[in-house]
Design brief:
The complex is a heterodimer of chains A (449) and B (447). With 449 residues, chain A is an all-alpha fold. Chain A has 21 helices and no strands. In chain A, 53% of the residues are buried. Chain B is an alpha+beta fold. Chain B contains 19 helices and 20 strands. The chains are: A mainly alpha (449), B alpha+beta (447).
Chain lengths: 449, 447
């Protein structure tokens, strides 16, 4: 036979030719990137994954309302704490991302494997309470945003719940998140507004580096809420799950670390701007925020009469993004801990616990937000107080696992990270205890604040 | 004494007494030797009382020193203790450390389950022949751990009308290796840690061998990356390669990067060239080069050629092995030749007739060959079939799928810009591309 039996040999002879177009291969084009600034920007955006998403989801309804209240009620005096919290956020997010990259597992699974059923149940109950409270806050945020546009909450909330369900179950979260990310440029209006309002930057800077403290329940509430909305229990689970889901391993971790640290910085730049904007506009006039239209006043220097609509747009976007993550993340977390089947592509029969929990979280959040006469803004703030009080529970597990050499090998936490993380958890526990004391004191006739 | 069912949670941390009834410590863990359908318990680790100052000390007590075991306490039959620190030997499993609360593979149910409790049976006259019977993955196991078994069992019966316990027999369970820790490759961990002292374990995973490679792939895809690598490494090379071939290219690439180079090369060599090319396209260039160096030169060249085609084109989808024979052969000789070549199932259905410059002249199907006159030349058979449907190597994924669907083909030949036959896309490869990928909660493909 003159011709090859199999055609392989003939192919091998011609293999040096480049048949068509660009060859495949992940890291082939590196030198070209360096020449082209657009490609460089794209490359930068491509690694901006988990950190930026979590960061953005962090400035949710609870976040916007808490920072607004913090600035309106206490001016710039909480900025020093926010600056410190930036380090805590960076450390805790890095810790979660690193644990995810090394173990390839979620935080809930690791808690279960390391601490057994009882501790897992405890952690899950705390997580569930914190997450449900936050879900309520997101729907409250949607209700508040809707009302600024003149849409009654009985219409906006059920619509949002249906939309969230559709987004997550019918499409994937990944395709939706980009829309939310683009819409989050609305946040740029806060720093602009702070500038337009003529914020006294010297004074802002001075208060950022000068710690002050007050002992009264109002201040403590806002203080705890500010920490609790910046570093959240669900954010701790989320960053880890996101890293695992992205398939980031120890090899790819250095890039993710940059992303996570950058994300923490961006989050707090936005938070900082919200506090400065409200501190420059509402605080001097003595307006303490009780409703969304008051919070919107902070954007008046830049948006004038449109401030209400601009604020509502930002609030609605933030609430919807978080509302589409939270119930889902909650349900996954609990199922992961107890080993129940989970997945949006599983049927009700295959994954009954997962779907029930998911449906419960969405319905619970929406129904509570629909309660007539519910003070929406106060609910959003309170949900973050709950987050702040329950955060240490989740943090302690996360810290212990990340520092455990038998889980993390040589990627176990170093001393600096450990000290910052423990200080954060410890400070929150102390603050929560102080809050309880201060709140109870009048009842027993002590102090009488 | 009759057969008695015992749960791990009922004996863990219970007091261990010496023959006189004085407490010597607490039961830390049970050790089984992995052999037979229901592995025997061969000993326990004892956390000695009064470990203050020197940390918890775990001593191994072989099972023949145990007098009685019950949910209340374990009584030793001898006062002699061996204080040597416990070290796991090959083929031994620690029920608490390795199994309780961990994920295992339910081979019969083909899914991952989390172990809520471990079921043991005590056999023999003294009830001392204790064996690992199964793992409890139900709600009742969770309730037992929380100390609320009875009310939950009652509630379950009232609500569902039957018992709600769910124990999977050990013969259907495949435990997952504890992966090696990053940086701990030498096996040296900090002292005093039970887990580290006993890592890593290497299991045989013989039960997985009973499954189809695609089922194994679905299971290992759900594992964490370190566990996935450990399981795949333990599988026999053939099954490992088939399993890896069924994974999504991205995950496949991660696995190949994680595996020791020799194992990765061995597995890569087992993969069909098209799959190997898809995989290497996802691996960093230097690693890909290193792996390609390990392959035989001809094979490596073929993979390189395939890697040069852009993603989602016919060139990237195609396989380069097919049967090409001269048109002068008779149908009978062709069948004889096919018998000799014995190509795999998806290559046997079409024989391509190729001209002098490598261009496709015609095609005959296995059916054509069987129904044709044995003396007829296959060139004539092919002419009777009419012109060959081909796709250019630059054709998109959708065009390939459409062509296969439109002309009802089992495989479609792929040609370069000079009409030379360079490969074929088979219907199952096209189908895999056409089906929507599975979604994870954050949208990752292929979970």
């Amino acid at each position: 036979m003159s011709q090859p039996e199999r055609y392989d040999e003939a192919i091998a002879e011609r293999s040096t030719e480049q048949p068509f177009g660009q060859p495949r291969g992940r890291r082939l084009g590196v030198p070209a990137w360096l020449l082209d600034w657009r490609a460089r920007v794209l490359a930068f955006l491509a690694i901006l994954g988990p950190g930026i998403i979590t960061a953005n989801a962090d400035n949710d309804a609870g976040g916007i309302s808490t920072y607004s209240v913090a600035g309106a009620s206490y001016g710039y005096s909480l900025l020093w704490m926010l600056a410190l919290t930036t380090f805590s956020l960076a450390v805790t997010q890095e810790m979660g991302a690193r644990t995810g990259a090394v173990t390839g597992k979620g935080l809930a699974a690791l808690i279960r494997e390391r601490y057994g059923v009882r501790w897992t149940l405890f952690a899950m109950v705390c997580t569930l309470v914190a997450n449900l409270a936050t879900t309520v806050a997101e729907f409250a945020g949607i209700a508040a945003a809707g009302e600024l546009f003149g849409v009654p909450r009985w219409l906006s909330v059920p619509l949002a719940a249906a939309l969230v369900w559709l987004l997550v179950v019918r499409w994937s979260f990944r395709s939706v998140e980009k829309v939310f990310l683009i819409l989050s440029v609305v946040y740029v209006s806060y720093p602009l507004s702070a500038i337009a309002a003529g914020a006294p930057w010297g004074e802002v800077l001075r208060q950022t580096v000068t710690p002050t403290f007050q002992i009264n329940s109002g201040y403590l509430l806002v203080f705890i809420a500010t920490v609790g909305t910046t570093i959240t229990p669900w954010g701790q689970y989320f960053i880890q799950a996101y890293v695992v889901d992205k398939g980031v391993g120890p090899r790819e971790y250095p890039a993710t670390r940059v992303d996570v640290l950058f994300g923490a910085l961006v989050t707090n730049v936005v938070s900082f701007a919200i506090i400065v904007a409200t501190g420059s506009t509402l605080f001097p006039q003595g307006i303490t925020i009780e409703s969304a239209d008051q919070a919107a006043l902070a954007l008046e220097p830049i948006a004038g009469p449109l401030a209400g609509h601009l604020f509502a747009l930002g609030l609605a976007n933030a609430s919807l993004l978080a509302a589409s993550i939270l119930p889902l993340a909650t349900s996954y977390t609990v199922c992961e801990a107890f080993g129940w089947e989970a997945g949006v592509d599983r049927s009700w029969r295959e994954a009954p616990a997962f779907h029930s929990l998911y449906a419960f979280a969405v319905v619970f959040g929406a129904v509570v937000a629909l309660i007539p006469g519910l003070p929406l803004f106060r609910v959003m703030l309170l949900s973050q107080v709950i987050n702040g009080i329950l955060l240490p529970v989740v943090l302690v597990f996360a810290i212990q696992i990340a520092r455990d050499r038998s889980v993390m090998g040589r990627f176990a936490s170093g001393p600096v990270g450990k000290v910052i993380a423990w200080t954060t958890a410890g400070a929150l526990i102390a603050l929560s205890a102080l809050l309880v004391l201060v709140s109870l004191a009048p009842i027993f006739g002590i102090g009488g604040g | 004494m009759a057969t008695q069912v015992l749960y791990l949670s009922q004996v863990l941390e219970r007091r261990v007494l010496d023959p006189r009834g004085d407490p010597v410590g607490h039961l830390g863990d049970l050790v089984v030797r992995l052999e037979g359908q229901y592995p025997p318990v061969i000993g326990l680790t004892l956390r000695l009382a009064g470990g203050r100052g020197i940390g918890p000390l775990s001593a191994f007590t072989p099972w023949d020193l145990v007098g009685t075991i019950s949910p209340n306490a374990v009584v030793l039959s001898s006062a002699r203790l061996n204080l040597e620190r416990f070290r796991r030997r090959q083929n031994e499993l620690l029920l608490r450390t390795d199994l309780l609360d961990q994920q295992v593979i339910d081979v019969s149910g083909r899914k991952l389950v989390r172990v809520n409790d471990v079921q043991l049976v005590a056999l023999g006259p003294m009830g001392l022949n204790v064996r690992l019977a199964g793992v409890d993955v139900g709600l009742l196991g969770l309730a037992r751990r929380l100390g609320i078994e009875r009310p939950i069992a009652w509630l379950g019966r009232r609500l569902t009308g039957r018992d709600i316990d769910r124990v999977i027999p050990w013969q259907d369970i495949e435990p997952i290796d504890l992966a090696e820790l990053p940086g701990d490759e030498a096996g040296a961990g900090p002292p005093g840690s039970d887990r580290t002292a006993t890592r890593p374990i290497r299991l045989a995973h013989s039960k997985l061998a009973a499954l189809h490679a695609s089922e194994v792939a679905e299971l290992v895809a759900m594992l964490s990356a370190p566990e996935r690598t450990a399981v795949l490494e333990s599988l026999e090379a053939g099954l490992a390669a088939e399993t890896i071939g069924e994974l999504e290219p991205e995950m496949r690439a991660d696995v190949l990067e994680d595996l020791p180079r020799e194992s990765a090369i061995e597995i890569l060599a087992e993969l069909p060239p098209d799959e190997a090319a898809d995989t290497l396209a996802e691996v960093p260039q230097d690693v890909a080069d290193e792996l390609l160096q390990g392959l035989e030169p001809a094979e490596a060249e073929e993979v390189r050629t395939l890697m040069a085609y852009p993603e989602d084109t016919a060139g990237a989808m195609m396989s380069t092995s097919f049967v090409a024979l001269p048109s002068s052969l008779t149908a009978e000789d062709t069948i004889t030749e096919l018998r000799r070549l014995a190509p795999p199932a998806d290559e046997i259905y079409y024989v391509y007739l190729v001209g002098e410059n490598g261009e496709v002249d015609g095609v005959v199907s296995l059916r054509d060959l069987i129904v044709a006159d044995p003396k007829q030349r296959i060139g004539e058979v092919a002419r009777a079939r009419g012109p060959v449907v081909t796709v250019p190597a630059t054709a998109s994924k959708d065009e390939v799928v459409e062509a296969i669907d439109k002309y009802n083909l089992l495989a479609i030949p792929v040609v370069d810009d000079e009409s030379r036959l360079v490969g074929v896309v088979t219907v199952d490869d096209a189908l895999a591309e056409a089906l929507p990928p599975r979604r994870h909660w954050l949208g990752r493909i292929g979970r």
